[in-house]
């Protein structure tokens, strides 16, 4: 027997009570873990967002187009390493509800800039460059529809009309699968040639939705942004340039304040659990007043008893919390697979934060009972006067 | 009758001793209140959003979008098509015989949220001269309607509440033009209150849209006339349009967001409720333990076990019920009527107010009472079965 | 024989409200190694307080307490804990076993305060349980045992660390006559065979007969009688 087994025996001396407290703590940390994962997902929307990556959009709003001519002018700006562009296609497969995130892109530079996010076999890349109607689909998207290289599929647009057919559908040949090159890469996307798009749309010709820029050095980001926006000031399509990360976060911000909701809910859950566990711990230790008195009589030093009581609440918090974080990680894994929302995962940061909170919970709920145990007078405890 | 008196007596004794267990009882109340607060805040958000969308639109207004475009922002409608619609049967005509029809343009512009200072998408709608007549419940609450052909705009009350820079009389830069806010309108809390309206021809020219529109809006002679309009549209090859009743269109926009918020709210509340249940069980078991001598004494005096069961259940239900009421009251006082906005399916912000309905309060209280019921049941059983001698062992 | 523990000029007073209650004053007593003392006296005579002082779990208001040359009244709490762990075994009226631990682990408890390895501890626990005749009950929890059995576990716990002195507070107060006699015989045996010095507080004249010396405490004074 050790002090630890003594702590364990005390903790589970009332099995029902211990189980109830563990359940309460488990759910608190399950909520924490899942919400932290969702938060992480939102933080990582749009992939890795390289630090030297900028996005230029129409100043009015990012849904407004810009002339395609801007791309060459931007490429000549000092500090721009390379630049590419894309257009939102508003794609869907067969039925309107089957949305497919589809971009018409400037193929070469786009794939170069996003090589950090997507891995593509060299032969697939070559095939894509060679085929005007080629389509690159992300691994997740391919898996969802059972698409493979060589398939001919139609994709429809809820915005554009194909001039050649008068319909809103374009035919594509899948020439490659985009594999994720990093954890947060969203592979439920499809890319095709802007040239194919531009030659066949009935309107919106020669305009692009947004331009993505890689600077030669992230220190130049601000300068480059200013130079670009100044270049198009007072033109019919003024621009707004910012880092890709800021752009992504602004987009998420449109949904409402996710962080605030997460913090409030987790806060509410924790305040509740803290009260329940704190109260119950205090009660449990009070019930054991006599036992603690006996331990002291046997010669256990007060400090050792203090540590044991504190150890008990710490153990309780960890026993309830650690499995909850594991369960949250599992749940997020399942959610990620079914929803296709990359970044939905319990990161090391949040796991560490969770453990810190567990320790804090354990110390906070145990400190008062432990202090009382430390101060306990043997004679009073044993009722011997 | 005797058992009834017993129950009353035991319950009274029990409730009177509640203050002795103040802190533990309080923790149950707070835990349940938190659960109800979290649940109701989500449900009230969803209800508020749904109410805004459901409250928008009339059965006797039809709107038409290009087939397959799903959202106004994706749609394109040509001037010729608007003219063709004007010849459709079943639509209301003005006194001069011309059709009551409005071709409209829907452009997304940036606004700045008052609360966070962050940019958000706002809809700038160009409406025809009959646009106002095609909106039921519209009233100008401040200033006046814009003059046709001018760079004047009117803004919805919801939009002004949430976004900065649109106060009456101010000048706003939207796109390449500068606009003057000359009026504020309300529309019974409808989605339109989150919009900016200007003259369609001015919007077309400032946003270089030529003579194209995005939606066509007409008033139907009666709600059933929509079928006449649909037949007409489908038999006219130049009109590849989809026809919706205005009400149907907006109701269809609501489902996703509402179910998303509700889908997040219920699992969260249930997970928290399980935590609170653990607390409630704990509280009630210790309540029974601390009253065991009292219960046993009553049993000695000839009271049955059932009154102790009822009294314990009652204590649990009262604590949980108080928690439920506090939670609901908290939402009612601090969150109900709170104005906020989120991205709607049209890719623009929809402003809505959080709405706590009696039906939601009922759901919250029911959840609280379920926690109280389960949290009280097992301890109550223990109270009822408490052996009389046990209470006297080990003084 | 040499003195094991002695009190010189001991006094114990409580302040209760505005009143000062004197339990005893100018108390002197000496207990020799190997003694088996029974302390008797009416309720409120200060028996339990005296036992608390001898066991170092309470402090005298004044006076000195000496155990084998060490001054207990000059030790701090930590030193007293260490001293108790090494020298004193306690036996209480209501056994005071840890409900969460089985018999063997209850007995093992004081050994956690020693530097003994787990093998040695197990051996000592086995021996102690054998002495009290409960070897086959090692895995039982207190709630699964009768009062007499619990008290025997408590005795095993008191002797497992091999202290020189056993302090018993009404050790048979909660037991029937037959069981009480078994427990008292066991204490007598521990005194005679293992040389434990035993100080026992009791109400029961029958119990006091097992002692080699009976002290009557009345209003804080001793009235000494030699057992028959």
TrEMBL record, chain A:
This is ABC transporter permease. PANTHER family: ABC TRANSPORTER PERMEASE, ABC TRANSPORTER, MEMBRANE PROTEIN. It is found in: Cell membrane. Residues 266-378 form the ABC3 transporter permease C-terminal domain. It is a multi-pass membrane protein. The chain crosses the membrane at residues 20-38, 258-285, 305-332, 352-374. Its main location: membrane.
TrEMBL record, chain B:
GO terms for molecular function: transmembrane transporter activity. The chain crosses the membrane at residues 22-49, 264-285, 306-335, 355-378. The keyword Transferase does not apply. GO terms for cellular component: plasma membrane. Residues 26-233 form the MacB-like periplasmic core domain. It is found in: Cell membrane. Its main location: membrane. Pfam families: FtsX, MacB_PCD. It is a multi-pass membrane protein. Residues 269-387 form the ABC3 transporter permease C-terminal domain. It comes from the Bacteria. Keywords: Cell membrane, Membrane, Transmembrane, Transmembrane helix. PANTHER family: ABC TRANSPORTER PERMEASE, MEMBRANE COMPONENT OF TRANSPORTER-RELATED. This is Peptide ABC transporter permease. It comes from Niveispirillum lacus.
From TrEMBL, chain C:
One of its GO terms (cellular component) is plasma membrane. It comes from the Bacteria. Gene3D superfamilies: P-loop containing nucleotide triphosphate hydrolases. Residues 5-228 form the ABC transporter domain. One of its GO terms (molecular function) is ATP binding. Signal peptide: none annotated. The keyword Nucleotide-binding applies. InterPro entries: AAA+_ATPase, ABC_transporter-like_ATP-bd, ABC_transporter-like_CS, ABC_transpr_LolD-like, MacB-like_ATP-bd, P-loop_NTPase. Keywords: ATP-binding, Cell inner membrane, Cell membrane, Membrane, Nucleotide-binding, Transport. Belongs to the ABC transporter superfamily. Macrolide exporter (TC 3.A.1.122) family. This is ABC transporter ATP-binding protein.
